[in-house]
Design goal:
Blueprint: H1 10-18, H2 32-41, E1 46-52, E2 57-63, H3 76-80, E3 87-89, H4 102-105, E4 112-119, E5 125-133, H5 141-170, H6 174-178, E6 184-188, E7 194-197, H7 199-204, H8 226-239, E8 252-254, E9 260-272, E10 275-284, H9 286-300, H10 310-322, E11 327-335, H11 337-344, H12 346-364, E12 368-374, E13 377-383, H13 388-401, E14 406-408, E15 411-413, E16 416-424, H14 431-447, E17 453-455, H15 458-480, E18 483-492, E19 498-509, E20 513-515, H16 517-525, H17 530-550, E21 557-561, H18 572-582, E22 590-594, H19 596-616, E23 619-625, H20 631-637, E24 642-645, H21 647-650, H22 657-672, E25 676-679, H23 685-693, E26 698-699, H24 710-716
Parallel strand pairs: 16-17, 19-21, 21-22, 22-23, 23-24, 24-25, 25-26
Antiparallel strand pairs: 1-2, 1-5, 3-4, 4-5, 6-7, 6-10, 8-9, 9-10, 11-13, 11-16, 12-13, 14-15, 18-19, 18-26, 19-20
Helix pairs in contact: 11-12, 17-18, 18-19
Length: 727
């Protein structure tokens, strides 16, 4: 851990800090709004104003802070005061100064930090305004500028505190401390007569300096606020102090010309020569209020659409639930928006999002809150709605409100949306759970085809938990080597001789035994492990075919199914060619099987990889041919070597003229494109003969063999058991 440097002006800095009268037991309430705004503006769980003492630090104001180590040598802010700009630590684990800091390794779990020093008027660093998160974050130049602006607000409030302390402690004559102070200061007596004031106070209220004599303080505030002010002064006269007396939240100042402004008011009193003297510090906070309101707006508003943002939506839902009010949460997602964005560009996409936001607000008509959660996902909060049927009717009405065409730059665009609905308290009584349940209902509505709504049911939560647990099991399966390969022989139909095999993945589950692909392949294909497992299958299959070719199967060919994710990760062609070289295999020993879905989803990316592989001599087989709508057109564009006739046609070809016609057509097309064919799912000798008669060259299916482990395959074809350890 790197300890912070001690500034060269340390003695003077500590003296300057002492003038503010702050300490761990004496925070400054006036700074609380600053840290609250900072936390909301940057969506951070922790914000603080940290003052740096000689060996410890303390918070002048904070939000979200628990029990933390307050030693100076571990403080991030103690580093920040040695800089002139914002100190940003995107990820403390990657920063050599902090990676072993107790605040990083301990319960505080400090991963992200951004802090800006707070500088006194005479140039000494008092402490820092900082925002903190337990997750790594990015922090832009614009974010840094906003943090600096908040730091200016904090410094202004600290300076006001210094003047207050100076007044209370020194009790110096008015002229000595206030005559030239930029802070407006007024002295008055127990009868509210102004004793004297400074130039700043006179100017603030539109008077000349010499016009203060004979005025009442009452004349500096609107008449409607006189009773409250009189009561404050009367209480102070009785108790001899303003300590413990609550100041009004909203106060206004009155100028000589009758105009008003928002007034920041601090009152003090003390005994002097047997008389009670009152002191008022005044400030025109109109601009600051406007600034705070704007900062609050920025912190709670989605800047693109003007709707509430994610943070505000979550807080509103939470507040409604705390108040035990019946509410409905609707999560709404646009169908196919990515395609529109990719086709027409982000500018058009942004215009669509703004129009959708406008329609949602119009449909709500002030009866709830609409928010943009992110991307093309919106959320709605409906108050006093506890009937699921009524909530779904609202959801359906919202969906219908979005159907009408949107015209942007001469483009007529039609957008549909899916919607998930959850009701409180029936479906949840906590904000994150309620919103999550609505999101699960949305996910189900999308699965049903989109453009419809769905009400949350508990089964959706159970499915989500099951998916999560299944995902964890898949990670364990990869880590612990639970996946194995089985091999189904591929034979020549003319003489039954072995031509190759298709490698098929199985999961040897420690509790449920050997699982077929149907039990886990969909989850694996759509999850984050697809590319990793796909490359393992490739490598394992190449190792096996290399062994069998060395044992006498000289022309043996291995078929391997590809996952779509393998086209997105790394360079597939380079990976495959490298594997072939590592195992000493010619390219013809490998045949990669692709489906229509893969080539449609990845299009040019897949086409380029397949072209390079085919040029290198690797076989490319089109699996499940004839089951999709685009198969014929794909034959023209993709450099294939073989077509695999789907088992659904093979198994019905002897009984169904339609299935037989499809098989005939596939073989004719393959011949026209000079492609080989192999039929899947052959179970009878009659099917074998029929396929041979119409020109199909190879086949696989239970007639020849079920998928076999490496040991079983070697036994069946008289090979050594050298690779039995792989089975």
């Amino acid at each position: 851990m790197k300890c912070p440097m001690i500034p060269p002006d340390e003695i003077e800095r500590l003296q300057a800090l002492a003038a503010y009268g702050l300490g761990s037991d004496r925070p400054l309430p006036a700074l609380e709004p600053v840290v609250q705004i900072a936390a909301r503006m940057f969506n951070m769980p922790v914000a603080a104003i940290n003052m740096i003492g000689s060996d410890h630090v303390f918070f002048a104001a904070s939000t979200g802070v628990g029990n933390v180590d307050m030693r100076r040598d571990v403080s991030f802010c103690a580093h920040a005061i040695n800089q002139t700009n914002v100190m940003v630590v995107p990820d403390s684990h990657l920063d050599e100064r902090f990676h072993d800091n107790p605040l990083v390794l301990g319960p505080a779990n400090l991963r992200f930090y951004a802090g800006v020093p707070l500088i006194s008027p005479d140039g000494h660093a008092l402490g820092a305004l900082c925002v903190i998160d337990g997750q790594p974050r990015e922090f832009s130049g614009e974010d840094c500028e906003r943090l600096r602006e908040l730091a200016k607000m904090a410094v202004d409030r600290l300076e006001l505190r210094r003047l207050e302390i100076s007044t209370e402690q020194s009790r110096q004559p008015f002229e000595e401390f206030a005559r030239n102070s930029p802070t407006a200061v007024v002295w008055f007596d127990a009868h509210r007569n102004i004793v004297t004031w400074n130039q700043a106070a006179a100017a603030l209220h539109g008077y000349r300096l010499d016009e203060g004599e004979g005025l009442l303080v009452d004349q500096l505030i609107p008449e409607r606020e006189h009773p409250i002010f009189h009561q404050l002064v009367a209480q102070a006269v009785t108790t001899g102090t303003f300590d413990g007396i609550s100041m009004p939240e909203a106060t206004h100042g009155l100028r000589k010309d009758g105009s008003e402004f928002e007034l920041g008011l601090s009152l003090f009193c003390w005994q002097e020569h047997g008389q009670l003297i009152f002191n008022a510090h005044l400030q025109d906070i109109t601009a600051k209020k406007r600034e705070e309101a704007e900062l609050h707006r920025l912190a709670t508003t989605d800047l693109l659409t003007g709707l509430a943002n994610r943070g505000r939506f979550y807080r509103e839902v939470e507040q409604a639930l705390v108040a035990a009010k019946p509410i409905a949460v609707l999560m709404l997602d646009l169908d196919g928006f990515k395609d529109v964005n990719d086709t027409l560009g982000h500018a058009v996409g942004d215009s669509i999002l703004r129009e959708i936001a406008h329609r949602l607000e119009h449909a709500l008509a002030g009866s709830g809150l609409a928010a943009r959660i992110g991307g093309d996902e919106f959320a709605l909060l409906l108050h006093e709605l506890k009937d699921p049927a009524e909530a779904q009717a609202v959801a359906q009405a919202l969906i219908e409100a979005l159907v009408d065409a949107i015209v942007i730059d001469h483009h007529e665009i039609r957008i549909t949306a899916s919607c998930g609905v959850a009701i409180a308290p029936q479906h949840a009584q906590e904000a994150l759970e309620l919103i999550g349940n609505a999101d699960l209902a949305l996910f189900h509505a999308k699965r049903l085809g989109g453009a419809q709504s769905y009400i949350f049911v508990q089964a959706l939560r159970m499915e989500a938990v099951a998916r999560h647990l299944y995902g964890l099991e898949l990670h364990r399966a990869v880590h612990d080597g639970e996946f194995v390969l089985f091999y189904q022989p591929q034979v020549r139909l003319s003489d039954g001789l072995l031509a190759g095999a298709e490698a098929l993945i199985r999961w040897r589950h420690p509790e449920r035994g050997l699982l077929s692909p149907a039990a886990f392949l969909p989850a694996l294909e759509n999850g984050p492990l697809a590319a990793t497992v796909g490359n393992w299958v490739l490598d394992e299959a190449c190792a096996q075919v290399a062994q069998w070719r060395r044992q006498g199967l000289a022309d043996f060919r291995m078929g391997v199914n590809l996952f779509g994710a393998q086209f997105r990760v790394d360079d597939l062609a380079k990976t495959v060619i490298s594997m072939l070289e590592r195992h000493g295999l010619p390219p013809s020993a490998l045949e990669l099987e692709i489906t229509e879905n893969i080539v449609l989803e990845h299009d040019e990316l897949a086409l380029e990889s397949i072209r390079r592989l085919r040029e290198a001599g690797v076989g490319i087989a089109f699996d499940d041919f004839g089951t999709g709508y685009a198969s014929l057109s794909l034959l023209k564009h993709y450099p294939l070597s073989r077509i695999k006739i789907d088992r659904s046609f093979v198994q019905g070809m002897l009984e169904s003229q339609q299935d037989k016609a499809v098989v005939n057509a596939v073989i004719d097309m393959a011949n026209a494109f000079s492609l080989d064919t192999i039929a899947e799912g052959i179970e009878t000798t009659e099917q074998q003969k029929a396929l041979l008669e119409i020109g199909c060259s190879e086949g696989q299916g239970y007639l020849f063999s079920r998928p076999l482990s490496a040991i079983q395959f070697a036994d069946m074809f008289g090979l050594d058991h050298y690779l039995s350890r792989r089975a």
